[in-house]
Amino acid sequence: MSNYAPYIGSRYSFSRQRNRFTSVIATVSMLGMVLGVASLIVVLSIMNGFSGELRARILSLVPHGYVEGRGDAIVDWQTLSSRIESQPGVLAVAPYITEKVILVSGGQLRGAVLTAIEPDLQASVSRLADSIVAGSLDSLEKDNFDVVLGVSLASLLGVSPGDHVNVTVPRLTVTPLGLFPRSKRLRVVGLFEIGAQQDAYQAYVSLRTGRILLGGDEGVQGLQVATAGLFEAPGIMQALDKSLEERYVVQDWSQTQGSLFSAVKMEKLMVSLLLLSVVAVAAFNIVSTLVMSVTEKRRDIAVLRTMGARAIGVMAIFVAHGLVLACVGIATGVIIGVLLSSNIAAIIAAIEAMLGVKLFDPTVYFISELPAQLQWFDVAVVALASLVLSLVATLYPAWRASQISPAEVLRYE
Length: 413
Known about the structure:
Layout: H1 4-14, H2 20-58, E1 65-69, H3 77-85, E2 90-105, E3 108-117, H4 119-122, E4 132-135, E5 146-150, H5 151-157, E6 164-175, E7 178-192, E8 202-206, H6 207-214, E9 222-227, H7 233-243, E10 248-252, H8 253-256, H9 258-296, H10 298-306, H11 311-342, H12 344-355, H13 376-402, H14 406-410
Parallel strand pairs: 3-8, 5-7
Antiparallel strand pairs: 1-9, 1-10, 2-3, 2-6, 2-9, 4-7, 5-8, 6-7
Helix pairs in contact: 1-11, 2-9, 2-11, 2-13, 9-11, 9-13, 11-13
């Protein structure tokens, strides 16, 4: 008799002798729970996939860390580079100079970020060389005034490899006629594509060309650092910061790109809360089911109380009744959500083939497929949150059931 509450509660959940309307309400509650849990798992998996895809694409160009001079150029950058490479966790170092410029071609004018690099060293800190889709990154070293553009930027300017663009930098040239912005004609020798916003504004030249355009001596603006791992980079760069003098500023990718990934994380949180409201509605539909069950089982409650069942035992019966319904819905929702998340790409491909349309047009979107990354931690959080909401929903009807007086119920029996 010590386990009578779960036993009777589960019997109530699956009893065929219930009122038909009560059965319909219970079924709707479970279906709502299934829909809410499954949709929440699928959406979280898709957002994880988008976040991972975005991180992989952006960080294919963005190094794990930076070391810059505090207001001044780094003149003896080779010595500093050797010092940084000797630090634990640091794999490679490459110099750079960067500046915002204006590119003009055939009447088209676009703002861009011009970065001067050493192509042979750049390959060790980023995957720029692997992202080249036309031309070659090594071509930058052959001649001065060559440039590699992002695919989208080249399309906006209407240029391709072999064409020329005019670049205007925020430096002044003194001439007998006065002061003029510094401008130069560059030859496009390559195009890169990573499938992110950098394709629309990033341009690369050699370090030698960058010094000519932007001025300066043999110094560089900073050093790009590749570490042993993406998520180990903050700790490695923090240790590097402590080992360098105060005239250097040390940053990692989570600081330079932190606002973007924080926005993605906040968006995931807000979408999760919105979809959790669907689960909450389904959970509180259980209240209606239990209220009707309490009304239907008043005589059973009175009989149990006269047989010695305590109020807390009656309350436990209806808590178990509600939790059984919720657990069935949650378990079914988890199974459906996991299956959909694991096969979302194949499902989208089948829908596209059936309808004859491309849902994610690669000419419009950077990502042409719907990525999904199932994380079991998210599945566990969704299941636990749904269970807690269901438990809260059962408390009031169960408490009302425990307050029923057996004498009042059995008086007219």
